[in-house]
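Design job #97: recover the sequence.
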């Protein structure tokens, strides 16, 4: 038995192999460890972790890649800061929304 709280996304690796876990006393995780010395790693990576990684990667790509439509507008250049790029993209998005509502 471990003092780690049972939660979705919790994994246990013993001597390099993932082992099955079970809930003990309704709150903790339990797992088998062979006799002798062992290396035990308890890893917690819930689905929200992977969602956060995906959002961060997407944001990094959007901020890092200047777009063709931006580099030609209002004196923008490929060397402008990522925040300038984001601000311009948001204003273009808002402008497009106003145009669609008028039609």
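Job complete. Output follows.
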């Amino acid at each position: 038995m471990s003092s780690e709280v049972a939660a979705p996304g919790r994994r246990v690796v013993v001597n390099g192999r993932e082992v099955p876990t079970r809930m003990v006393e309704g709150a903790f995780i339990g797992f088998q460890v062979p006799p002798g010395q062992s290396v035990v790693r308890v890893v917690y990576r819930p689905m929200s972790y992977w969602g956060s990684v995906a959002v961060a990667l997407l944001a990094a790509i959007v901020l890092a890649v200047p777009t063709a439509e931006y580099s030609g507008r209002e004196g923008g250049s490929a060397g402008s800061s990522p925040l300038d790029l984001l601000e311009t993209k948001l204003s273009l998005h808002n402008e497009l929304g106003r145009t669609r509502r008028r039609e």
